[in-house]
Amino acid sequence: xxxxxxxxxxxxxxxxxxxxxxxxxxxxxxxxxxxxxxxxxxxxxxxxxxxxxxxxxxxxxxxxxxxxxxxxxxxxxxxxxxxxxxxxxxxxxxxxxxxxxxxxxxxxxxxxxxxxxxxxxxxxxxxxxxxxxxxxxxxxxxxxxxxxxxxxxxxxxxxxxxxxxxxxxxxxxxxxxxxxxxxxxxxxxxxxxxxxxxxxxxxxxxxxxxxxxxxxxxxxxxxxxxxxxxxx
Amino acid sequence: xxxxxxxxxxxxxxxxxxxxxxxxxxxxxxxxxxxxxxxxxxxxxxxxxxxxxxxxxxxxxxxxxxxxxxxxxxxxxxxxxxxxxxxxxxxxxxxxxxxxxxxxxxxxxxxxx
Lengths: 232, 113
Description:
The structure holds 2 protein chains of 2 kinds. Helix content of chain A is 64%, strand content 0%. Chain A is mostly helical. By secondary structure, chain B is mainly α. Chain B is 68% helix and 0% strand. Chain B has helices at 4-24, 28-52, 70-100.
């Protein structure tokens, strides 16, 4: 048994962190602990992105997931207070689901291995980043010949921008529209109907306890005659 | 050597853990976090495939519309969609809590016939 290479050590540590974080996320009784597990899993996966020469995506992963999504989860958990904690969280169907999940895992791992082993014992290696046959640099040279500009290194922000804003321009704009709609929808859903109560005519005593909607509407109609139409 | 299978098996493992959490937990917050885990596992797979095919000369098109970062671009958009999904999902959690004073999925049965 030879010494593990630095890549193997790095991959093993990051993969162990990601799996441990995922298990904590799924199994933690306290949702705050679950959010911390999610943070650990996201950090581990961002570190794995670095090993796949996706530096920009690793940064985006940390910014968006660790910086925004997990913090949003923590905000909601703390807003709900102790009610976010659901103690009786046992499911009767759990053993069957454990079996199904294990089968799914084994099947997917087996399919991945079969598909990429080719039956020859030869595993397709990642193309090298140094000059040589099959190198990533050959593709970058071909891009330079085809387009006339020198491409940036694989996975950098400049190289990503040259493709997101050229080949992926329409999806990028659609994503911006999606985010806008999501923000408006999230605000509308989270605010609820508190701004839509029946308008009281001026002079009526405020501070009365809320009545059923039908009773309140009829009372308002009787008091003010042509009341402004309520929004549906 | 670290090969693509390592990343694929890790991605499958993380996706399975996320699917397990989504199917078994009754806490909406944990279910949403499990969805994030599954999306992240898919991202890892996409980036690994992007790295595997980064030396493929067939992905270079004349005129500059090459797809040297196709998998990373997919992962980029998945991150955007996941952020939108988390925002809307947590808003729905707040609305559900206002209605039922609970975040358990089996209490959200208003649409049951």
